[in-house]
Specification:
Strands 1, 2, 3, 4, 5 and 6 form a 6-stranded mixed beta sheet that branches. The chain has about 260 residues and is of the alpha/beta class. Helix content is about 35%, strand content about 15%. Helix 2 crosses helix 7 and helix 4 packs across helix 7. A hairpin with a 2-residue loop joins strand 2 and strand 3.
Amino acid sequence: MTTEDIILQIFCLVDDEMKDMPKHSQAKLYPSELVTIGILFALKGGYFRAFYRWLSRDYADLFAGLPDRTRLQRLLKAHQNWYEQLLAAPSFFTVIDSYPIELLFPIRQGRSPQQVGKKSKDKGRWSVGIRLGFLLNEQGQVVAWDWDTMNVHDQRFHPVIEQVNGQSIVLADYGFRSAQGIPDNCKLCAKGTWNERMRVETALSMVTVVCGLKRIHHRLWPYIQARLASVVAMFNVLLTLFHQLHPDADPFKMSIAEFSL
């Protein structure tokens, strides 16, 4: 698929989910166009300034009219709740895990009072950043998510598990145990058991390799929130697109590499 084909396919899937959302009379972009741009940024990764240069230079004709870069970035922040329409439904078993994301090198910590990230170790290396909690269904799509600073424990994401209480049994590792107890629908899995949990490891590996999510360059809370919301929506849309393009593939297979920008 060409890059233009990928953009059009993503837009069609997004527009199908958002077709009932009206366009503001003064807006240049339809809601589905704005969400598509956010998904493309999540997929391409890097700095928003470089992404905007690429989009306006090569693919501006695909959209009704691109606003200025700063205006577009504020729009993505203001309408980040639109991505919630692309979350998946829970299955009988779901899987949860956390994913550390670097914002700064440790030597830069404390240089600004607006810094969001906190210092913690990631695979033996000190880092300043945030931690993303993912809840995936059996198809590998994101059902719910949340984030906090990197220095929090996995039990911080118990509220994410409680969101599907009565709908799903959530498989988690022992990092989610707590002296105060765990949610009723959470099952702690010992290492080497319940191989269904590998689905979340596969998903986190994909966003690391394809989207470069291990490090992001936002500094303020609202923009970090918007970026993570677009990543979640991107992952669900691309998995849906993969199975539409490959109807004979295993329904539990997960792949987004062919859509890399």
